[in-house]
Amino acid sequence: MQITFLGTSSGVPTRSRNVSSIALRLPQRAELWLFDCGEGTQHQILRSDLKMSQISRIFITHLHGDHIFGLMGLLASCGLAGNVQRVDIYGPPGLNEYIQAATRYSHTHFSYPVKVHAIRPGIIYEDNEFTVTCGLLHHRITALGYRVAEKDRPGTFDVEKAKALQIPPGPVYGQLKRGETVTLKDGRVIKGKELCGPTEIGRKIAYCTDTIYTDGAVELAQDADVLIHEATFAHQDADLAFDRLHSTSTMAAQTALMGGAHRLIMTHFSPRYAPGNSIELKDLLSEARAIFPNTHMAYDFMTYDVPRRREADGLGGAARDNQGLKTLSKS
């Protein structure tokens, strides 16, 4: 699971930061999931190592322009390229009407199936590997946060140990790999868990923007390997945050702390904190780290490979997170 930040500015783009979008690459299934699609997202994808043809799901938090104005252009380009199989789009009520109107007035015709899902809080997608849930945030219009949870998997199957126990190969190996208990023809009862390494704990990612501090975001962040949370304003500008229902850096840090997240990556920064101003982005980072030390600041094209956790790997949260620091890099 690899996260790529395609846009990390709030409201309007700047020379170095585009508006909101992140990509979650799932290399084991050659899929790309997008979260929000601000104006220019397709250009950002073209400048990255991501493949537009792998886009299969798009999750929209809310219908403000800096989160959706790139959606129609991206969908149209995917159709012209002719190599996208199907796109499922998830978002709040009104998203389907927006896409239908844009399609009608621009005379756009998709050459592939596009399915829009109007979602409510709860599980919105599930397969044999992942569960995606959404929850309400607190913004000026209906806004949703997302949580992607990878399902736990049995540890590596010890084939040599199975051979030493004279377990005949075949379908029984598959059962044991899944951790099941099997009764052999000779009457022996074999527990699959005893032939597998430590359970691979499924990774969890939470994405929360736009919102002021809210219990809904804390719930989505529970035990997340990484929480991606907006930090539009500095703590000193909390009045602006409350007025516009956005978060400060300290609110993002409090959400990570209360949710027990392992890492916080802040995004959606106001252009007012450009270098040379009285408050700069480095000040927002310092504010957040005073509350939640394992905080990082996203920038466009930053990638992060989410490390796996094992049931008995001997790594505490801090050690595991320090290990993951090596994966924060420019694309």
Automatic annotation (TrEMBL):
Entry keyword annotation includes Calcium: no
Q: Which GO terms describe its molecular function?
A: 3'-tRNA processing endoribonuclease activity; identical protein binding; zinc ion binding
Q: Which InterPro entries match?
A: RibonucZ/Hydroxyglut_hydro (IPR036866), RNase_Z/BN (IPR013471)
EC annotation?
3.1.26.11
Check the record and name the Pfam families matching this protein: Anti-Pycsar_Apyc1
* Annotated positions binding Zn(2+) 1: H62, H64, H139, D210
Cofactor, free-text remark: Binds 2 Zn(2+) ions.
CDD domains membership: RNaseZ_ZiPD-like_MBL-fold
Needed cofactors, names only, are: Zn(2+)
Which of UniProt's keywords are assigned here? Endonuclease, Hydrolase, Metal-binding, Nuclease, tRNA processing, Zinc
Source species, domain of life? Bacteria
Q: How does the record describe its quaternary structure?
A: Homodimer.
What family does this chain come from, according to its entry?
Belongs to the RNase Z family.
Function noted in UniProt: Zinc phosphodiesterase, which displays some tRNA 3'-processing endonuclease activity. Probably involved in tRNA maturation, by removing a 3'-trailer from precursor tRNA.
Q: What is this protein called?
A: Ribonuclease Z
